[in-house]
Amino acid sequence: MQDRSDAPHRLDATGADQHAANERLRARGPVVPVVLPGDVAAVAVTRHEELKEFLAHPEVAKNARHFTALREGAVPPGWPLATFATVEGMTTADGDDHRRLRGLVTQVLTPRRVEELRPRVEELTDRLLDALGRAASYGAAGVVDLREHFALPLPMAVISELLGVDPDLRDGLHQLSTLIVSTTTTPERALAVNRDMADILDLVVARRRAAPGDDLTSALLAARAEDSDRLTDRELTGTLLLMVVAGHETTLNLITNAVRALCAHPEQLELVRTGKADWADVVEETLRYDSPVSFFPFRYPTRDLTIGGTVVPRGTPVLASYTAAGRDERAYGPDAARFDITRRPAARHLSFGHGPHYCLGAPLARLEATTALRALYTRYPDLELAVPDHDLPPHPSFVGNSAEVLPVRLRP
């Protein structure tokens, strides 16, 4: 019923079988009507070229004032996806506001600053690998959840140190950000999650105001003290929320998906071992083949807009389907569904976005993922999945894209 050409596709909130569903959606066209939780109508852009055009289109906005159904009160209270639409920050800002907010972060998250983080990322990686071995030694038959013990704590530690988040707050931030990304969160729980997240971020701000450091939060507070018009309190909190969620959830999924793909394609791992490819190739192909983000909300046409021959009415919420576009045969050839780290050109994918909202954290994510994979396979070159790949449960979300757990046998 969902795949009839005249029926909107109801997105599966559990995140199950995303690639199979994406294949059917691409076959229907580059722009497909979908139904979101709460029976909210939207569309998804599913093909590479059309998505690239849409992401950079000058008449596409991010501010929720353009979201017709939300403005007219047709979106139910406690809607699980409301945070993506209503948080105040650079992801929901347009024009001068977007440039102002993005500029504040860009001043701190410079290429030089990212490169200066390399020794710290390497140090954290080595510590986590030591702990991973100890966790495996206590597990049944040497099995350990690589996602929980390695792919998660590395980006969480890095983004927390970058933002000035103290260690006692990090577990809470991760748990709450996972619930924000989840599309199975109930309305009642969603409201509580947003309150709890705001409380923790307020505490982060209070601590850095009392004891400034060499971190992004302190830098933003200094900019606000210098000129309060440059950054409101809600924009400060919204910026931190964006950085916490995007700064670790996506890299967590990227590392998880890369290890999963290499376990399923040992011939690709052999290419790295023999010097025919490198870890950067693994990262770029994982971003294309199994993007950490699937259907990312939201953008809104500011007028009726024709994309790929389909008219998208003004004010319609549009999702960018990075996982669908990443396997578009029109862009990547008939073998688009194959994991191939020698694929060229490299980094052609859209998984970090395109246009004015291109991900500021892309260099940091690449640094963390390449460092993590190189060190992991140096320490444990023969690691393998401890369960069949098809038995890995999906993360319960159509926004994020990954397995919820990744049990591996290290075999040092």
From TrEMBL:
Keywords of this entry: Heme, Iron, Metal-binding, Monooxygenase, Oxidoreductase
Matching InterPro entries: Cyt_P450 (IPR001128), Cyt_P450_B (IPR002397), Cyt_P450_CS (IPR017972), Cyt_P450_sf (IPR036396)
Transmembrane annotation, as ranges: none
Domain of life: Bacteria
Zinc in keyword set: no
Oxidoreductase found in the keyword field: yes
Family the UniProt entry places it in: Belongs to the cytochrome P450 family.
Protein name in the entry: Cytochrome P450
Organism: Streptomyces blastmyceticus
